[in-house]
Specification:
The protein is mainly beta. Strands 2, 4, 5, 6, 9, 10 and 11 form a 7-stranded mixed beta sheet that branches. The longest helix has 4 residues.
Length: 128
Amino acid sequence: QVQLVESGGGLVQAGGSLRLSCSASARTLWTYVIAWFRQAPGKEREFVAGIRWSADSTYYGDSVKGRFTISRDNTKNTVYLLMNSLKPEDTAVYYCAAGRIYTDDPETGRRESSYDYWGQGTQVTYSS
């Protein structure tokens, strides 16, 4: 059982930065991949970034590569998403998710169905 709580969302101005946090409650996260997804109004949920806890390996969606950085803090059981150079299309509700994914195939890690636990989401809104 994993409980996830997101925080850090808000209004951000053109070209600004924001850092989201996902605090995870679990006996161990060693076997999990923690990921961020987002969903904009009227659109499907989209994979943003993922991190394998045991290997600290990361992967990103094409639309955020080079702008967003996912990282983790072992001591706090927290995953962060640093978002730089924000654009209007980054406006969405951002969700944290956890799943036991045993393959390194990135396509598996990008699927919603690979994740069993989800947070409640945090809103990020771009403002010009």
